[in-house]
Amino acid sequence: MDLSVRRLVPASMTARLVATVVLLVALVGLLVSALTTAVLRDHLADQLDDDVRAAQRLVMGMPGGPGRDPRFDNPRGRGVGTLTAVITSDGSAGAVQSGLTETALGPEALRRLASLPANGRPQTSEIDDLGRYRVVVRDLGEATLVSGLPTTRMDETINELVGWSIGFTVLAVGVAGGLAVIVVRRQLRPLRAVAQTAHEVAGLQLSTGEVGLTARVPDQLTDERTEVGQVGSALNTLLGHMETSLDARHRSEQQVRQFVADASHELRTPLATIQGYAELGLRADAAPDQVLLVLGKVQGESHRMTALVEDLLLLARLDQGRPLAREEVDLSRLAIEAVADARVVAPDHQWRMELPEDAVEVTGDGPRLHQVLANLLANASRHAPSGTTVTVAISAASDGTRVSVHDDGPGVPVDLQAHVFERFTRGDASRTRDSGGAGLGLSLARAIAEAHGGTLTLESVPGDTTFTLTLPS
Fold this sequence. Notes:
The structure is a single chain. The protein is α+β, with helices and mostly antiparallel strands and 473 residues long. 52% of the residues lie in helices and 18% in strands. The chain contains eleven helices and 13 strands. The protein has a six-stranded antiparallel β-sheet, with helices on both faces. Helix 5 packs parallel to helix 6 and helix 8 packs parallel to helix 9. The relative contact order is 0.06.
């Protein structure tokens, strides 16, 4: 079968393993049979050679020695099929003993025997009409003595052994094939269970929406001490990563949808205001004072929309990983300026500062760090009632420099704390303009902190709320 056919008809692992087992058993059976046959043939050949030598010694031990003495023709003492021939210069005589009778050798057989080397070692010769013989040819000076025995019984024994060996090998191959099918299928059953789990996952709709990958390889098939267990464990790990990634993708999709909806809502409000005032200003009976009022409102909403778009643009740039400026920034000075601005905006709050005697400097983007502090202080002034004490403290820590903004107001609601840094998250359920802001301040502050390699965290209970900004030294 060529490569193209094998590609069209791929063999299963069960078929390949069974074929391998059958082939190995067949090869081992043939090898054992060949070795057994060779050893037995050598053993029988050695026995036959010993018998030939003994027969020759028997002939040589007769009174008068071999020749045309009548005692040469005495059949007693010689086995069935024994060949004895005396080849002299003036003639040859030879016979094959069979039972109590003798068969004389023909001239052609005698000539073939006469052509054999007289070295006294056993050798094989094919004698016409008699078959193969194992003979010993010995030079006696005045004559040559040839003694031999047929190889018929040895050949029959070897042929019978070969036949039985082939039969047993075929039987062993059949039994091994049947057992291999049973054992291999049983051993591959866990692998089929792993494949079934993979097929179940492959049939799930993973392109969109929330996906729950509940399919897992059973625990009993994840023992990493076995090959199948290693595959099952690796598949479970892969499915776990897929589930985490798909959940993260779904959350990201939901966040994008929510982000677009919130951004559209926030932009729709100033756009609707601008449109309404523009229509009012275009009225023919609009007074000059009224037109100025309209232009002022349009300008205010434009500023509000511009600030929102700039915040969105900054968040997008931070999401893309664009680097910020890297320079030495006096963090103490930034805190003093931010608190001074907050006092003007919210004079009914109590503003305090706890700064080290020496100026604290960090490496970063000064305007962006000022924006973080301004957003944290604006959050405190907007959501804490009048009279709340807000404390800004800077301190050194083992993991960098810490800036904390603490207030003793009512705190952040528990159900809101997990989402306080998400975009467009606002403390009020409604989206009134009086609450101020679009819900981007804290998310922007955390994004800037992370862009500096730092963190921004929240700890809040009623009467004790602290935002902590940590920047690397």
